[in-house]
């Protein structure tokens, strides 16, 4: 038992909390990261079956923090994105019935001879391991795991946080990176808007007989979006959204029947498919915190916002939170200001809250628009996709949005 003093206590050691510790330590802050479960759990290959589409602006941050080198080899570049209003089998069979589609090619936003991918698909298990390994190397980061807090008391100039084993941490600022239920957010009395989509994302990795040519495909089916995300070695990660009842039935099928169902949906465009790992199910929901801070507490990642994976933006929003908060705190510290003061954190709120809410509610509308078979809506969205596809500046605008380059970019995300 003892009291440890640091600049910033981060509660939650998922991908957002770990990356925040690395980014803030890089800016010179002493950090304690407290995670409820042993960090070694996250390094188990079966802990998290998902992949994350990292937008190119987010990849810059990973690169600048020296985190990209261990990830680069296992990352699948996204050179093109094709969005189709219909099932894969409708689009790829002769005379297919899928109508609207949209094609993004990284060459269109290339910088002279230099073409960079629109993003990369990274397996979460690799990212979690890379972040934990890097944190263990940093003198400015102290890891406390497993550790659960019992009390957070704002004592004026600092927060005093007490843990179950009696340990105390005194910090100028507490960051809640403790996921959607966020006990830190609840403690801070910050309200949320939240709802369930009644949908579940079935996630698995497949290997295929034919090459995916580094093209990410997103198909809008009545059950929800179906994404095929390119990985190295002719593998792809699938995020297959269905209503929760249907998803439960699908994941409980024996493998041959599941594959039959998958191939029936998929059609022949990647040739014969094989499962390359377990099948996972993630219930999908929406969450938006009414604000991202109170005095001496800031929220980042899914503790602040949780979005549908329709556009692969959830963790990318978290990366931008981290980069923006780092800039705000760094500038405040250089100016001799108190990094936990409400007036400093208000800047973080102004930078991130409005943009995130606009994107989150926009994606919510998109999810509803595309998860239906209604003929009128089908026509409207096909027309919309067709329009964007024909107008080059609009296409480029959407590519830059997908690349995370929209709005005021924090320093670690700039080219
Ligand atoms: C199917 C699916 C596909 C996705 N694909 C993409 C994608 O392609 N691109 C993208 O950008 N995003 C994607 N996302 C979103 C992304 O996975 C999440 O945004 C991200 O994992 C959230 O990380 P986090 O660290 O904020 O939260 P979490 O992963 O929930 O981590 C929170 C951590 O806090 C800990 N914790 C909780 N309570 C306490 C406590 N009391 N004390 C200490 N620790 C505590 C937890 O144990 C956990 O480790 C996807 C999501 C899903 C469901």
Structure, briefly:
With 415 residues, the chain is α+β, with helices and mostly antiparallel strands. The chain has helices spanning 15-26, 56-64, 69-72, 88-92, 124-137, 183-188, 244-251, 255-266, 314-334, 342-370, 375-390, 392-402; strands spanning 3-11, 31-34, 51-55, 76-78, 80-84, 101-105, 119-123, 141-144, 149-154, 159-163, 168-176, 192-208, 215-221, 224-231, 235-243, 273-275, 280-289, 293-294, 297-299, 305-306. A hairpin with a 4-residue loop joins strand 10 and strand 11.
Layout of secondary structure:
Blueprint: E1 3-11, H1 15-26, E2 31-34, E3 51-55, H2 56-64, H3 69-72, E4 76-78, E5 80-84, H4 88-92, E6 101-105, E7 119-123, H5 124-137, E8 141-144, E9 149-154, E10 159-163, E11 168-176, H6 183-188, E12 192-208, E13 215-221, E14 224-231, E15 235-243, H7 244-251, H8 255-266, E16 273-275, E17 280-289, E18 293-294, E19 297-299, E20 305-306, H9 314-334, H10 342-370, H11 375-390, H12 392-402
Parallel strand pairs: 1-2, 1-11, 2-8, 5-13, 11-19
Antiparallel strand pairs: 3-7, 4-7, 5-6, 9-10, 10-11, 12-15, 12-16, 12-17, 13-14, 14-15, 17-20, 18-19
Helix pairs in contact: 1-5, 1-9, 9-10
The structure holds flavin-adenine dinucleotide.
Describe the structure.
- By secondary structure, this protein is α+β, with helices and mostly antiparallel strands.
- The chain has two domains: 3-69 and 122-193 and 286-370, FAD/NAD(P)-binding domain; 74-120 and 195-284, D-Amino Acid Oxidase, subunit A, domain 2 (D-Amino Acid Oxidase, Chain A, domain 2, 2-Layer Sandwich).
- 35% of the residues lie in helices and 29% in strands.
- The strands form three sheets. Strands 5, 6, 12, 13, 14, 15, 16, 17 and 20 form a nine-stranded mixed β-sheet that branches. Strands 1, 2, 8, 9, 10, 11, 18 and 19 form an eight-stranded mixed β-sheet that branches.
- Helix 1 (15-26) packs parallel to helix 9.
- The protein is globular, with a radius of gyration of 22 Å.
- The protein starts with a strand and ends in a 13-residue tail after the last helix.
- 46% of the residues are buried.
- The mean pLDDT is 91.
- Residues 11-17, 34-37, 50, 52-53, 148-149, 177-179, 183, 201, 203, 239, 282, 301-302, 309, 312-316, 318 line the site of flavin-adenine dinucleotide.
